[in-house]
Specification:
With 169 residues, the protein is of the alpha+beta class. It has two domains: 76 residues, ACT domain (Alpha-Beta Plaits); 71 residues, Alpha-Beta Plaits (2-Layer Sandwich). The protein is built from four helices and nine strands; from the N terminus they run βαββαββαββαββ. Strands 5, 6, 7, 8 and 9 form a five-stranded antiparallel sheet that branches. Strands 2-3-1-4 form a four-stranded antiparallel sheet, with helices on one face. It is elongated, with a radius of gyration of 19 Å.
């Protein structure tokens, strides 16, 4: 099954996330990644939803989302022509011997060390999913103590954008 990314503009109020998630769960679709944040208009949030399926299933999901009252606009993003990023925080066990190797590995991925203590380092990295997955695999031998990932945030490249239709919101 292929991975698809949907971008939706929704009303920014209580219950909207529950309605959207409920649509997926009622139909037996798994959300692989979901990020939500306020737009330049405090009444509107952008949801970025990553899901696996076939083309027919994704078209069905998109149509069902468009029917929800709280959803103003939905667009299936072409990931080859969109900017897709994720953030991860990775807490890694670090001794005096391993600390330089962890820092060097983080540097290769243009990641930052955001917390240091005697027993661990916390690494912050942004990028596409494959970059983050690769860094995690290289840090795994040092002992990953905790991992937090944001999920995908995405915007179309160039002038294309979802219309912020305030009359619908």
């Amino acid at each position: 099954m292929e991975r698809y990314v949907l971008s939706a503009l929704v009303q920014n109020h209580a219950g909207v996330l529950s309605h959207v998630a409920g649509l997926f769960s009622r139909r037996g679709y798994n959300i692989e990644s979901l990020t939500v944040g306020e737009t330049t208009d405090p009444n509107v949030s952008r949801m970025t939803i990553a899901v696996r399926g076939d083309e027919t299933t994704i078209e069905q999901i998109q149509k069902q989302l468009e029917k929800l009252v709280d959803v103003a606009a939905v667009r299936l993003l072409d990931t080859s022509s969109a900017v897709c990023r994720e953030l991860a925080l990775i807490k890694v066990g670090a001794s005096a011997d391993t600390r330089p190797h962890i820092i060097q590995t983080a540097d290769i991925f243009r990641a930052r060390i955001v917390d240091v203590c005697a027993e661990s380092l916390t690494v912050e990295v942004t990028g596409d999913q494959s970059k983050i997955d690769s860094l995690i695999e290289l840090l795994r031998p040092f002992g990953i103590r905790e991992l937090a990932r944001t999920g995908i945030s995405a915007l179309e490249r160039g002038p294309a954008s979802l219309p912020l239709i305030l009359s619908l919101i």
